[in-house]
Amino acid sequence: MITGILKEIKVAENRVSMTPAGVEAMAAHGHTLLVEKDAGIGSGFEDAAYEAAGAEIVRTPEELYQRSEMVMHVKEPQPVEYPLIREDQIVFTYLHLAAEEQLTRALIERKSINIAYETIQKADGTLPLLTPMSEVAGRMATQEGAKYLEMTHGGRGVLLGGVPGVAPGTVIVIGGGVVGINAARMACGLGARVYLLDTSLERLRYLSEVMPSNCFPVMSSVPTLRQLLPEADLVIGAVLIPGGQAPKLITRDMLPLMKPGAVLVDVAIDQGGCFETSKPTTHTEPTYMVDGIVHYCVANMPGAVAKTSALALTNATLPYAIEIANKGWKKACRENPEIRLGANVVSGHVTYERVAETFGLPYKEISSLLS
Predict the structure, then answer these.
(1) Shared domain check, 166 and 96
(2) Taking burial as the number of CB atoms within 10 A of a residue's CB, which of 41, 72, 74, 265 is the most buried?
(3) What are residue 175's DSSP bridge partners?
(4) Which structural domain range is residue 183 located in?
(5) What is the pLDDT of residue 175?
(6) Cβ atoms within 10 A of the Cβ of 351, count?
(7) Is 270 a catalytic residue?
């Protein structure tokens, strides 16, 4: 299969969807790899490294789309790319369609085969292609939150870890999944007092066993949030509904409960955000203020640490990319239920139920398209 690796064009996105090592592995299976010129520069990979691994360097995205049977991105296709996507072409990337109605409708119109990294799911419920970027984003959430607490960035001027004789800052992490546990561990490592909220009692028991002593797992509820928000210096939103929009857990009427200059970091912004006042931002303009509260809502946080992220992403996506390329998308979906769950929009039909529900679109069961 001819597979194209695109250069990312989203603002300040430096990741690449496949490293030269990944290209070499794909080529070893007999596949042809096209890599857009300078696609790997932001992640530290020169074109020469891709050529040495067996890829052909292609100068324009137009040529890459035209020649490739499958294209791979990190982020979702941007509006300028919509006309380039061909009918029956496989688009394999993060899509986050529940937050992107325009993109959803464009992919329906293009009649392409759109397989989303974030909804590929194992039998135990884990999301193997979302996990590595969630680990990165969770750790970055605390790091960025700590930075924007500085007064030079509009924050309260609080050092999360405190110093001898001065109490540490307080961090609330909403969601005890991969993002949440990584964010909480980083905050605990800095010495903050951390409340880690989740709605699963079983998960809270697990968190109580594995987290440091300065982390306090708590059952999540609106009354609990209202009780804790006045203490918070930093709140990290880390909730996830696979393939669906994130619930709005902190509403605007709750913001006056918080201290002026406190920071909200919304890691769920790719799925619409879990704070009512959230809106997507970029690494070039990462924050804004609402009612005296700093909001950090960058939609591609791991893009700021592209060298780490590109390696971690390729480690996760490569086995699935090889399987799709080896078998074709239909056989891969028939034989691997994990890939089947990744199919979001196929041949003009929405095949992921939560996306269809979000926009009131017809839903079609993917199995009916696999014969």
Answers:
(1) no
(2) 265
(3) none
(4) 135-299
(5) 97
(6) 25
(7) yes
State percent of the chain over pLDDT 70. Answer: 100
Report the alpha-carbon distance of residue 326 to residue 4 in Å, rounded.
15
pTM of the model: 0.90
State phi, psi for 324 to the nearest 5 degrees: -65, -45
283 annotated active-site: no
Low-confidence ranges of the chain (pLDDT < 70): none
| Count of the separate structural domains present in the chain | 2
In the set 198, 233, 266, 270, the catalytic residue is 270
Q: What is the CA radius of gyration of the chain?
A: 21
Q: Tokens in use for 102?
A: 């325009």
CB 121 within 8 A of CB 341: yes
Kindly state whether residues 279 and 295 are assigned to the same domain.
yes
CB 145 within 8 A of CB 174: no
Choose among 309, 333, 368: nearest CA to 139: 309
The residue behind tokens 């056989």 is 331
User: Does one domain contain both 107 and 175?
Assistant: no
Residue-wise pLDDT tens digits, 312-348: 999 999 999 999 999 999 999 999 999 999 999 999 9
How many residues are there in the chain? Answer: 371
Give the CATH number for residue 66.
3.40.50.720
Amino acid (1-letter code) at residue 273 = G
SS3 137: helix
Bridging pattern class, strands 113-116 and 90-93: parallel
